Amino acid sequence: MNVSIVIAAHNAAGTIAETLNSLLCQTYLDWEAIVVDDGSSDETAAIAAQFTAKDARIQVVSQPQGGVSSARNRGVSLAQSNWLLFLDADDWLLPPCLELLTNVLKLNAEVDAVYCGWARVAPDGRYIDQYCCPCSDNLFEVFAKYCAFAIHTCIFRRSLFESVGGFNPSLKTCEDWDLWQRIARTGASFAAVYKVLALYRMRPDSASMSSFQVFTDGLQVITQGHSTDPRISNPDPNYQNGLPTDQLSSTKYYFACWIAGLMIGSGSDARSLLEVLKDEPAPELDPQNIVQNLFLASLLPTCQTPSEWNKLWATIQAQVNNFLLALEEQTQISGLHHDVYTALEQHCSEPLAIPERMETKVSHTIQLEITEPIPNLSLPEGVERLHCTIELEGTCLGTLELPVFEGYVHSYVLTDAIAADFAWQIIGHFFEHTVYPSLSIETQETRSSIRRGNLCLAELPSEQPIVWSKIHNQIGWTVFLQEIWARPDLPEASFYDPQAPEEPSTKCCLSDGWLTLEVSETLSDVKVAGQQLDVVLTVGGVAIGVVPVPVKDDVVRSQELRAALTAATGYELCCTAVREGLLGRPVTEPTSLRDRLLEAASHNSPTDALNRVLSPSERGVVLGRRTFNVFGTSASRRAVFPATVARELSDCALMAGEPVLHVLEPSEQAARVVYAPDLIWRPVQKQKTSSTHTFRSNTKQAVEVPLYNRSYFETTFATGPVHWNYTNQYEQTKYEQTLSLLPPKPIARVLELACAEGHFTAQLAPHVEHLTAADISQIALEQAAERCAGLKNVDFMHLDFMKEPLPKPFDLIICSEVLYFANERETLQNVAQKFADALAPGGYLLTAHANLVIDEPDRPGFNWNFPFGAKVIGEILASTPSLHLVREIWTPLYRIQLFQRSPQFRWFFSQTAPELIKLPQPTPPPPQVAADVLWNGGTPRDQTVQSVSTYHLPILMYHRVAPSGASESARYRVSPDAFEEQVRYLYDAGYYSITLEDWHAAMKAHRPLPGRAIMFTFDDGYQDFQTYAWPILKQYGFTAIVFLVANLVGKTNLWDQAYGEEIPLLEWQQIRQLESEGVEFGSHSANHHPLTTIPYEAVIREGICSRMILERELGHLVKTFAYPHGAEDRVIQHLIGACGYSFGLSCRSGLCGLQEPLLALPRIEITGSDKLRDFVAKLNP
Questions:
Q1: How buried is residue 317: exposed, middle or buried, by Cβ count under 10 Å (0-12/13-18/19+)?
Q2: Out of 16-20, 647-651, 658-662, which region has the weakest mean confidence (pLDDT)?
Q3: Least confident range of 201-205, 315-319, 482-486
């Protein structure tokens, strides 16, 4: 494979030698280079000619200056190869670049282009940044919005370049972006090598720094990407009309922010850019996208790295401020300036070359060494937010953020936040000094075991080095439980097993049903009069909650106590132990964790909770623990509020039956309000509590979801090209052989099952009178329908033939490459009988399937993870009554078989022996498929049963389901038909609804949920939820959470006035009716303000007031909050949690993993323009 490298050069005498030398250093030798000197007035051509003399692969041509596009087009006209790469005369390639890229092309004949990662390099040789665009099957969607990679990162087919018309000479900049967009629009197949192999030279005078020209040209390319492009004669049908225009304005504004960063970084005023976009509405810009664009682009003109942001920020913040004020005024997005400016300011607090203290406009940044005492912090007037860089013996652990009220941050809150965020790292560092050195390591031939006494904690490959900071993740939890309970001999499972052996207790205490127990003291059996013992567990003398323990025979054994306490408290036990035993003290002290806690308990007492939050002279309001028996949520986190919200907080707590303590005289004002989770109030009436969560009953059914159901196939077709390329020679040969077995007579009615994307359908249709093509995947059927649009004798049918009845009768049924997925012989037998029943008497069944080594281990075959292949499939079909084999084409890798159903009058039918046509393998399979072939037979794979589990939960975010509405809000409105198609797909795929409590239980247990779990959420609470969405959800057995704007229930969407459409919101009567039918409700704030744009006191009021209204009207606690407009950050999360919410749902896109912060759970937005393919792809990113 030869590659033609085209180098356009203009006045590049200072750099072209390095560029050409990088080619001479390539480890791949089959290349040519065409240097096109574009009217240079310096020695560029002469220097290039010197290289021509040394290496015949390099040639130089000259032309009058016509621009880079003209020069590149000229170079292609002289190229000899079918593969191209464009290299600018001031950039260069690393030595393995061509070798690694061409290797991909050689192994994947279907790939049209392959690209690598690249880095910007400063004049002094520093890498400014590194990039590699994730490869996907729809790179057009990327190039319609921005340029995904540098021009010299990609090798691609010359035929593509010529088919799209080459470079556009009318563009002075962005010509490469325009080319890639056109190529991607054709549906070209891209691949990626995720290594930095290409280097881009940074120069302040580079053409790409001509900001306004880039802006003008870039807008042209973006607009073209959202419309048809007449230059493309063969566009992919999905991209023929470009991207939907509903996001066009936003894309232009994001691009303007990138250019603004370049201008601001160069010292220019960027506000003139907005004049170009004055007629573009953009009411829904994401502040984070703007932050990223401004941050990264402003560094480039002066070739600075992100670590130098502090220095740059001081010089550009005025220009940034001016631009953001103008941007907010033009877009009318309330709070946009505040959100973006604050976020850019926060970059100054990242742990990169931070001075010891650095004060900003509304923030205060400080470094804290946690082995030293952690004090109360008094901060300058006007500071709203504290940024803490947390260090442990000089090593940065990360940063945390807290709100500042009245210029004060209490160490009571600060230590709790540090432990909550960094407990695992801190305890690991502590064990490295105290426990891990005493562990023994036993090495055998292939494995090393880490042991504590006779107990094996972990096994590792013998070649793996012992690095305690990494091994901590494997053994740390077991060691922590051993240390906290003083049982170094127990394995982890024993700490959760109430029946585990235990040494007889030497003492027994009495309890009336409540017991305070310190974790660092020796456990004993407890005699109890009653059926439940409520244990107030303290750690270092500080209460962390109440654990209910069931009582049997009037006694709770010590091991039963230990198991119940361990299971209930979970990771919160570790956080509290770190806070009370390790923070503020050197970790190198030889004292054990348990002894430290015992010492702390001698100074603390649960009754001292008040003194820990208010000094004897202070006056304030103290809110006691909200939920006794829930651990690890916001109920466990300490918080301080301003005195201005004391009344709202007190009223809300009292209404919910939560303890409130006023430490002041009737005429006094509170100095502050504190939420103290260690202040536990014993209720007069026993509350119903539950320490464990039981999964919903329908999860049992979810375990039985088959792996290869509709979800598998829709995902396969939605998320990328099928692993098998239909157009390669191997498949085409098989298609031709299949067609050769068609019965030699007119065929009237034909059913093709598993038609996929219609490649064979298009070849079959001319041979039959009428063809029905069916598939389990609606996405595949849509592609097949487009491919066969000109065929009048073909119709399409969505059908799961494994489960659903077949239409009948047919003269011919074709079913290929799919019967392996039956997965059980009994299922295959039932399917075979369906085939026979659906055929007209004398009709035919035609199949093609691969030979698998599991059928014949001594013969060639594919080693796939299926229980049977073509041999068994053929035998079962042949054994079906009324079906017999007529003819078979056998090759080493597959069988094509024609069966016939017995005619109606069998006594006239003479069955003959089947004809066997045995052929050598006509064509080899593609390389990626051939990798699974065992040509000499061999041992089949273990047929492991793959169970379906939910490790990552899709939380779907909808706004409206309605048939019509304003075009400006189309993104937020899904049609009822589209919604039903999505819900029906989820039903067919075996998904089931869960609650956030279900998911929290899975997170706490570190165990996935069985089956395919999902959550539906609806923001804003529109009446059309009851009219359109809920009947569909209820029909298919799903439920949902609807988030209400509490002050606007029964009114209209006042926050969306920019769209000019008043939409009625649910009324309380409707809400209560829906709740009685299974719908859950949460808070979407009181007034739908973006919370990052309002003062923190107002944030608290939004959270508290909405909670009060909802709990008063619904009659129960409301624990879930969805951030309006997705406007949240770590401080907002802290405040919403402090208001009493356990779960916070963001607009951050993604699946929700088991480690997500409870107050920042990601969701997947479903928009009005999403087709089923888009919907399925979003579930499987």
A1: middle
A2: 658-662
A3: 201-205
User: Going along 740-828, which residue ranges are E strands?
Assistant: 749-753, 770-775, 794-798, 810-815
- Non-local CB neighbours of 801 within 8 Å, separated by 6+ positions: 753, 754, 774, 776, 815, 831, 834
Contact 141, 180 (CB under 8 A): no
Q: Comparing C-alpha atoms, which of 1174, 1125, 1177, 1181 is closest to residue 1153?
A: 1181
The chain-wide mean pLDDT, for the chain, equals 88
Tokens of 1100: 């608290």
Instruction: Kindly write down the DSSP assignment for every residue of 638-685, as one continuous string.
Output: -EEEEGGGHHHHHHHHHHTT--EEEES-TTPPPSEEEE-TT-----SS
Q: Which of 319, 410, 337, 454 is nearest to 1092 (CA)?
A: 337
- Taking the C-alpha atoms of residue 333 and residue 286, their distance in angstroms, rounded to an integer, is 10
Task: Quote the DSSP letter at residue 336.
Answer: H
Distance of CA 460 to the CA centre of its chain: 30
Of 355, 284, 253, 272, nearest to 319 (Cα)?
Answer: 272
Amino acid making up residue 1091: L
Residue count of the chain: 1181
Rounded Cα gap, residues 894 and 973, in angstroms: 48
3-state secondary structure 337-406: HHHHHHHHHHHHHCCCCCCCEEECCCEEEEEEECCCCCCCEECCCCCCEEEEEEEECCEEEEEEEEECEC
132 CB-near residues (< 8 Å, 6+ apart) = 116, 117, 118, 149, 192, 194, 195, 196
Task: Tell which of 603, 631, 646 closes a domain.
Answer: 603
Q: What is the pLDDT of residue 507?
A: 65
Among left, alpha and beta (phi > 0; psi -120 to 50; other), residue 385 is beta
Judged against a pLDDT cut of 60, whether residue 469 lies above it is answered with: yes
Say which CATH number the domain at 982 has.
Answer: 3.20.20.370
Q: Does 1048 lie in the same domain as 977?
A: yes
Q: Please give the Cα distance from 392 to 469 (Å, whole number).
A: 14
- Residues 1102, 1087: contact at Cβ < 8 Å? yes
* pTM beyond 0.85: no
Look up residue 1171 and give its two tokens: 């087709």
CB of 342 within 8 A of CB of 351? no
The Cα–Cα gap between 744 and 904 comes to 20
763 is a domain residue: yes
Percentage of residues of the chain with pLDDT beyond 70? 92
Distance of alpha carbon 249 from alpha carbon 280, whole angstroms:
6
Same domain, 812 and 888: yes
Total structural domains in the chain? 6
Which of 629, 649, 675 is the endpoint of a domain? 675
Local structure of 197: helix, strand or coil: strand
772: exposed, middle or buried (Cβ count in 10 Å: 0-12, 13-18, 19+): buried
Tens of pLDDT, residue by residue over 221-243, are 999 999 999 999 989 888 899 99
What three-state secondary structure class fits 915? strand
Identify the pLDDT of residue 931: 81
Domain-embedded: residue 389: no
pLDDT band at 691 (very low <50, low <70, confident <90, very high): very low
User: 351 preceded by cis ω (within 30°)?
Assistant: no
Cβ 921 vs Cβ 851: under 8 Å: no
Report the candidate in 496, 487, 490 with the shortest Cα–Cα distance to residue 563: 496
Joined together, the tokens standing for residue 185 give 């629009």
407 in a domain, yes or no? no
Residues 539 and 629 in one domain: no
Are 739 and 886 in a shared domain? yes
C-alpha distances in Å from residue 342, one per residue of 389, 864, 1094: 17, 54, 12
E strand map for 891-1011: 894-901, 915-918, 933-934, 949-950, 955-958, 960-961, 973-974, 991-993, 1009-1010
**For the chain, how big is the Rg over CA atoms in Å?**
34
The range of the structural domain enclosing residue 620 comes to 615-675
Q: What is the mean pLDDT of residues 20-29?
A: 90
Q: Strand 1120-1122 vs strand 1143-1149: parallel, antiparallel, or unpaired?
A: parallel
